[in-house]
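Deliverable D5.2: sample structural annotation.
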Amino acid sequence: MQPWTIKQLNDAMRADLEQCHTAHERLMCEAINGKHIREMATVWAKTRKLTPMEVAIASKYGYKPQQ
C-alpha cells in the first residue's frame, strides 16, 4: 500500500524502529525515514494543504512550511 499521509509514514517509521536491534540502527532508521517524511511533505504540500497534524509531524524532522 502506498502511503498518502504523513501520519501513515510516521506510523510505518515506528514499525521500522521496532525492528532495530542497536541504537545506531535506530538512529539511521529515524534519519532516513525523517528525510523521506520531509521530502513527501514538500511534494504533497504542492498539491494539497497539509493538515496541522501532518505539519507538526513533518516539522519534527525539519520540514519548514512554505508561505
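Annotation notes: The chain has a mean pLDDT of 91. The two ends are 31 Å apart (CA to CA).
The annotation will be released with the project's public dataset once the embargo ends.
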